[in-house]
Amino acid sequence: MKNKPNSFKTPDDYFDSLTDKLMSQISIEETTADTKGFKVPEGYFDTLNDSIQQKLKEEEPKVIQLKSYKKYYYSVASIAAVLILFIAITFYNTNTNNSNNAVSFDDLASTDIENYLENTDLELSSYEIAELVPIDELEINDLISQLDNENINTYLDESMDSFDELNLYTNDY
Fold first, then answer.
1. Using CA atoms, how far apart are residues 138 and 134, in angstroms rounded to an integer?
2. What does each C-alpha distance from 38 to 31, 51, 53, 67, 131 come to in angstroms?
3. Buried residues in 44-79 as b, exposed as e (16+ CB within 10 A)
4. Among positive and negative, which fits the CA dihedral 154, 156, 159, 164?
5. Per-residue pLDDT tens for 100-129?
6. Angle CA(133)–CA(138)–CA(141) in degrees, nearest 5?
7. Which of 19, 61, 104, 139 is the one with CA 20 to 30 A from 70?
């Protein structure tokens, strides 16, 4: 890049007299300023409040009455309380009637007990179950009465996969 001389030069002693020139210019502008637009008429602020109040005509605001819903709330609450009391009394009466007919262990059907024991995984072996049953209360007649032909046939049908396992063919003797 060429080294060009600076073409912007200020005249000699320009900055020495700059302050004086600026101050004289400011004083000239202050004396010739137009102040007509910024003048307030005399007594303007004395009557300002009264003129504003006249422009603001005080009207009574329109009052809208809100409906009181307390009556409705009280009536709904009383109806709900009556219903709750009615339901509680009927529930109490049915429970007191049923308490005389309480379900006992004897009322359970033996099939229900068997189904529960078969379908519930108790993770007990037959020996552990036998330990829980007291032998003193068992009688041989109870066991024999349950071993009729129908029970034996049902047991064999459920526990045997096929008759082939029995090898009861006459040719096999």
1. 7
2. 15, 21, 25, 55, 115
3. eeeeeeeeeeeeeeeeeeeeeeeeeeeeeeeeeeee
4. negative
5. 566 676 767 777 877 887 788 777 777 787
6. 145
7. 61
Find out whether 72 and 78 touch, Cβ atoms under 8 Å: no
Written as one letter, the residue type at 171 is N
Report the b/e string of 90-105 with b at 16+ CB within 10 A. eeeeeeeeeeeeeeee
The Cβ of residue 124 has, within 10 Å, a number of other Cβ atoms equal to 12
Locate 69 and state its tokens: 């819903």
Amino acid 31: pLDDT: 67
